Amino acid sequence: MKGNDYDALRELIAQNAIARNLGVTPQAVNQWFSKRTIPARFVLRVCEVVEWKVTPHGLRPDLYPHPEDAIPDLLRRSHTATNAAVMKNE
């Protein structure tokens, strides 16, 4: 996890809740936070647990180099439409 997405994840959900949702120990999640790296197999599941308020790119840009990588299509379309509306109003 890097920078703001790491901080955002801490604000969104407790480490114990992540552990419960993923079926891992709280100690494992604590290690992820300490190393600021979520194992590849858990990145998408963590994003799902927090309802995509953090992105795969934000958590592991080495695995998801583009900001919209691995984001579900419905969310991607919604995000694109919102950005277009904001730019139109500026």
TrEMBL record:
This is Antirepressor protein Cro. It holds the Pfam family YdaS_toxin. It comes from Escherichia coli. Signal peptide: none annotated. GO terms for molecular function: DNA binding.
